[in-house]
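Key idea: predict the complex, not the pieces.
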Amino acid sequence: MSIEPIIGQYVTVTVAGAPRRIYFESAGQGRPILCLHTAGADTRQWRHLMNDAEITAQNRLIAFDMPWHGKSLPPEGFQTEEYLLTTGSYIETVLAVVDALGLDRPVLAGCSMGGRIALQLAALHGARFSGFIAIEASDFQPAWYDIDWFHRPDAHGGEMGAALVSANISPFAPEAERWNTLWMFMQTGPGVFRGDLSFYTRDDSLIGRLGQIDTGQTPVHLIVGAYDLTCTPEDAKRTADAIHGATLTVMDELGHFPMSEHPEGFRPFFLDALAQMPARKSKAA
Amino acid sequence: MIETFRALQSQLEDRPHLLRLGRLFSETVLIEVEGQEVYLTFDKGHLVAIAEGPSRKTPWRFALRTDADALRQFWQSRPAPGFHDIFGLVKIGHGRIDGDILCLVKNLRFFKEVMALARAEGGAA
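Result:
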């Protein structure tokens, strides 16, 4: 038997004038790394890295479930509300968690929609962070599917969502982790994946902001898997090219959920990304 | 191609979990590869008929159209990016899906896993 070092806690923050009870996990000590999950999933995507003793020896990894996701409840009155994530509410939520947890210029690591918002934060609130690791992130992709498929009374949105996003998982992914990754999508609440995708596939406001990102102040490193159909290497390259000073690494054998679908395959790329981020002492420099 | 679908038909009978997933799926699917038509008729998840076209009289619910090389690559145990999924084929310009796509999406895991049965190691779609 072994007890994992990950600690789970709750914190209540205010978003859009109302309280949100947020579940977050943390592990390690040192430089804070705030990790953002993908659409339709939760903090569990980061568990492998949070259980990696070599990484947590010098880094404090923190991941939280967005409201409506995982163990974070939706706000009061959700039953009559259409959940549609927006750039504004997403940014407000991330910054509220940074403040509530007292994180001093953390590195922000986000995947998919988490990577998209990381780049938005790099453009709009770069000084609040020390660096950005944008995984499977790009400026914008319109949907190649109908997002309304995933919230219908006559079908299970989670099962359909999982079947769709399996297209983004590499055939090199270990079978157990492929299905652990898909399980999170199967578990999403009704309409949540659709609401996340609304942000991801309809808000193109990042395109005009990429030029505002100051990588001299906060480095930006993009990582993309070759098997990602949603954010392809071409999408990530187009995005990196539009950010002066950004760097990009393509992972040949990984897909859209690298830290979750193939932890061992992703590990060296994440270590490389961490090495490109400022050390803890940089704040005083 | 027809031999592959016949092999796939018998493999499906050895996969109880797939038959359970497909228990509400009773439809005909058209697979068209460079003009060669194959109609796959499912009944409650069982692949009960494989009919070669051309046919103008066989109704189908949805169709997957691709080319022979793409399908060959799709059936590799570890396909190259884009060839690893039916929607990947569409995305990279080697496939087209027509018809009742919502029906496909409702049964997507079942259909993708059935199509992937022909992979050398039976990898997931």
